[in-house]
């Protein structure tokens, strides 16, 4: 009853091979976090030197919106192109990204800066979708999924802090980002082999995956709504902070971002408690903290205090939506789409609410702002409850199915020992009692002739003293 990515024993989580895969997944996600956030920071800086703060925020929302298109394109590319062609596309895309970075920094016109920025974020969206999917493939196990996300998020943020504070020229910053984009492209190509192996095994469990897809899709809809509502809150906060930065009130790229890095790491460890059973509840509590942050910013509280609270809560949110969708993707038939959907939903909603949130923030009507936030808070609370319940039900069913599979395996092993089945006879016996396939289908699946299969079946009948397939099924079910 394993997913398409398989399962491994807890004691084998950090053997040599899995440790290498874990490190590769961390590196991939760290590189993407740095390149995406670094490019976003550079883009806002360049744009803000030529237009007003409001237009800078709008340009940022356009970039986030077009990245969503990129996230949606990757699953389509996976269906259309083979892995080798995807590798070529990855290299070409990386080269185009480098060109866009340097053209963006020329400060020639607003139109050129915006246009090259949009192309850049379209490509980064495709890279992001690929990164999240391939990280899931590399892990092969959910045990430390949130920690993986938290650790990679922290490393990506720390790289960005170092880049912002050590490099002050736009062209130099573009050069650093270009190196990391090219490195990300190379690592994606290397990681593609592991994903190809996982995809090759997908067909062997397609029937089970279809069942998981139905359950996964239902909870996925609730999760999308949950993340969308929280993005409305965090997106408004982000726009408020970006306005401060674009208007020269404060530099958000300084030491405050350390809180963002540390909160991401802390979130990873807290979320993984009890197999992420309390992840939704913890995120809900953090959302309350973010609502308090808006009050601090709007009622003339200390900006540094509000910014610190915002970064603490934003780190939890980023780890939450990333880990939640990566986890859910393993129980759907389109993991390439669902693995990166958290970032896509976040970016899409952030773009959609940008105009309204800016108008609200610039209105100076604090009562309207707080009222809107409280309404969102209530809606999000209801959705959080539904998501928590649905997620618990899903994983309770999956745990029960896994225990049943283990029980079936143990029964098969006991009967094999009792009746002295050969390994091939045990395999045939298992297929006879657990499937409704005809003998010809079973023979085809085992790559043997029907006559050979019939000899195995006759041997099984003779050893068990049972004369029919129904009798074998009865024997198997009664041996609990």
What can you tell me about this protein's structure?
Helix 1 packs across helix 5 (145-166), helix 2 (53-80) packs antiparallel against helix 12 and helix 5 runs antiparallel to helix 8. The protein has 480 residues and is mainly alpha-helical. It contains 18 helices and no strands. The longest helix is centred in the C-terminal third of the chain and has 53 residues, at 366-418. The radius of gyration is 26 Å and the shape is elongated. The model is unreliable at 1-13 and 198-213 (pLDDT under 50). The protein has helices at 16-48, 53-80, 83-104, 110-139, 145-166, 170-200, 206-246, 257-271, 279-298, 303-329, 335-338, 341-352, 354-363, 366-418, 423-434, 439-446, 450-464, 469-478.
In short:
This protein is an all-alpha fold and 480 residues long. It contains 18 helices and no strands.
Oligomer: single chain
Protein structure class: mainly alpha
In DSSP terms (H or I, runs of 4 or more residues), the helix count works out at 18
3D shape? elongated
Q: What is the CA–CA distance across the termini?
A: 19 Å
Outline the biggest β-sheet. none
**Percent range of helical residues:** over 70%
Q: Look at the structure and give the mean pLDDT.
A: 82
Q: What is the string of SSEs from the N terminus onward?
A: HHHHHHHHHHHHHHHHHH
Low-pLDDT segments, ≥5 res: 1-13, 198-213
Return Rg in Å. 26 Å
Number of strands: 0
Content of β-strand: under 5%
């Amino acid at each position: 009853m394993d997913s398409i990515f398989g399962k491994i024993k807890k004691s084998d989580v950090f053997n040599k091979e899995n440790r290498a895969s874990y490190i590769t997944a961390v590196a991939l996600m760290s590189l993407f976090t740095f390149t995406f956030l670094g490019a976003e920071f550079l883009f806002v800086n360049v744009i803000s030197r030529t237009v007003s703060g409001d237009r800078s925020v709008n340009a940022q929302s356009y970039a986030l919106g077009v990245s969503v298109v990129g996230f949606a394109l990757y699953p389509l590319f996976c269906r259309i192109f083979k892995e080798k062609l995807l590798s070529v596309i990855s290299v070409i895309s990386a080269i185009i990204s480098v060109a866009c970075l340097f053209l963006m920094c020329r400060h020639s016109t607003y139109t050129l800066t915006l246009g090259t920025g949009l192309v850049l974020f379209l490509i980064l969206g495709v890279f992001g979708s690929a990164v999240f999917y391939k990280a899931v493939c590399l892990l092969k196990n959910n045990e430390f999924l949130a920690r993986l996300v938290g650790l990679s998020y922290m490393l990506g943020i720390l790289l960005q802090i170092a880049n912002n504070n050590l490099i002050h020229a736009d062209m130099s910053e573009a050069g650093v980002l270009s190196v990391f984009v090219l490195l990300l492209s190379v690592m994606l190509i290397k990681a593609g082999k592991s994903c190809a192996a996982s995809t090759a095994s997908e067909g062997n469990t397609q029937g089970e995956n279809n069942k998981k897809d139905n359950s996964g899709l239902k909870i996925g809809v609730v999760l999308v709504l949950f993340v969308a509502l929280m993005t409305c809150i965090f997106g408004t906060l982000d726009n408020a902070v970006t306005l401060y930065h674009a208007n020269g009130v404060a530099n958000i790229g300084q030491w405050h971002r350390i809180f963002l890095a540390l909160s991401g790491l802390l979130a990873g460890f807290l979320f993984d408690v009890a197999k992420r059973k309390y992840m939704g509840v913890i995120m809900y509590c953090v959302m309350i903290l973010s609502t308090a942050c808006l009050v601090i910013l709007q009622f003339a509280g200390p900006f540094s205090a509000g910014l610190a609270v915002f970064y603490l809560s934003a780190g939890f949110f980023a780890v939450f939506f990333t880990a939640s969708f990566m986890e859910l993707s393993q129980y759907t038939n389109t993991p390439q789409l669902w693995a990166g959907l958290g970032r896509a939903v976040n970016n899409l909603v952030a773009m959609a609410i940008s105009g309204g949130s800016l108008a609200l923030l610039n209105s100076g009507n604090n009562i309207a702002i707080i009222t809107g936030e409280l309404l969102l808070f209530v809606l999000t609370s209801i959705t959080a409850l539904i998501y928590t319940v649905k997620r618990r039900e899903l994983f309770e069913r999956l745990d029960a199915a896994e225990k049943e599979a283990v029980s079936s395996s143990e029964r098969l092993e006991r009967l094999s020992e009792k009746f002295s089945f050969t390994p091939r006879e045990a395999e045939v016996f298992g297929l006879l009692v657990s499937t409704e396939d005809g003998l010809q289908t079973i023979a085809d699946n085992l790559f043997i002739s029907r006559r050979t299969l019939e000899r195995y079946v006759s041997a099984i009948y003779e050893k068990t003293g049972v004369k029919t397939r129904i009798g074998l099924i009865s024997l198997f079910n009664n041996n609990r």
